[in-house]
TrEMBL record:
Residues 1-15 form the signal peptide. The keyword Cell wall biogenesis/degradation applies. Coiled coil: none annotated. It holds the Pfam family Glyco_hydro_28. The lineage of its organism: Eukaryota, Viridiplantae, Streptophyta, Embryophyta, Tracheophyta. InterPro entries: Glyco_hydro_28, Pectin_lyas_fold, Pectin_lyase_fold/virulence. This is Polygalacturonase. It comes from Kalanchoe fedtschenkoi (Lavender scallops). Keywords: Cell wall, Cell wall biogenesis/degradation, Glycosidase, Hydrolase, Secreted, Signal. One of its GO terms (molecular function) is polygalacturonase activity. Belongs to the glycosyl hydrolase 28 family. It is found in: Secreted, Cell wall. It comes from the Eukaryota. GO terms for biological process: carbohydrate metabolic process; cell wall organization.
Length: 261
């Protein structure tokens, strides 16, 4: 059943790929010095409304201050293609009073994020200190997204974890390379809203912290269900493992070993 649904989802998005929303055409400089977040937001408005491909082109380095791409979208799906490099500010003060996420996607159905590009969170700004704004930021966060597919992208130097998934349903995370931080993936569920049908496939990278993968799921309802973790290879400090709370893993072929109950 899942594979039929996914095939239909990919086919419907492919039909919309003719509409290219290139962030450069909305004023993004791509010089690594200018904050391109305003241009990205303007481009996102059109992509969220009309669908197609939200293009972050190769050959450019885009500086983004903290940004949220928010739905619900009028389009039935959006394809975010990351080919260039995206870097965060080098000063933590850019986050002001909220440091949880650097880049986040919220309430978007049928979202595809792929490409050969890179997210660089300039994590050294955060690793040696904590500021008054709270926790250190996740590189890329997905919140309340249904039918999510993330593949091919690279992430490095996050302030905290590379990717977080909160209250998402039917998500596939595959062919990801992540380098450095304390936690590679963080799956969070704080209420009775289920996290289900989440797959982590063919993931590689490094981790400096105690837990490479964290599932922090609520005891309400059924917790996090139908999670598949396969071909995940993470290297780092001795004893790096996974933390699981109320998470039910369907299949686990990982290094380090992931055991959830």
């Amino acid at each position: 059943m899942f594979f039929f649904i996914l095939a239909g989802f990919l086919s419907s998005n492919s039909a919309r790929d003719g509409n290219i929303v290139d962030v450069v055409k909305y004023g993004a400089k791509g010089d690594g010095q200018t904050d391109d977040a305003p241009a990205f937001q303007e481009a996102w408005k059109d992509a969220c409304s009309g669908g197609g491909t939200f293009l972050i082109p190769e050959g450019n380095t885009f500086l983004l201050y903290p940004i949220e791409f928010e739905g619900p979208c009028k389009a039935s799906g959006v394809h975010v293609q990351v080919l260039g490099k995206i870097v965060s500010p080098t000063k933590a003060q850019a986050w002001e009073e909220q440091c949880n996420d650097w880049i986040s996607f919220r309430k978007i159905d049928n979202l595809i994020v792929d490409g050969s590009g890179e997210f660089d969170g300039n994590g050294k700004v955060w690793w040696s200190k904590r500021l008054n704004c709270g926790d250190r930021p996740t590189n890329v966060a997905f919140n309340e997204c249904t039918n999510l597919k993330v593949s091919g992208i690279n992430s490095r130097n996050s302030g905290r974890n590379h990717f977080s998934i909160s209250h998402c349903d039917n998500a596939v995370i595959s062919n990801i390379t992540a380098i450095a931080p304390e936690e590679m993936f963080y799956v969070f569920q704080k209420s009775a809203v289920d996290i289900s049908d989440v797959k982590f496939l063919d993931i590689q990278g490094t981790c400096q912290g105690e837990h490479a993968i964290s599932f922090n799921c609520s005891s309400y309802g059924s917790g996090c269900t139908d999670i598949e973790i396969k071909n995940v290879k993470i290297t780092g400090n001795d004893g790096v493992d996974a933390f699981c709370k109320n998470a039910h893993v369907e299949q686990s072929l990982t290094s380090p070993k992931v055991i959830c109950s």
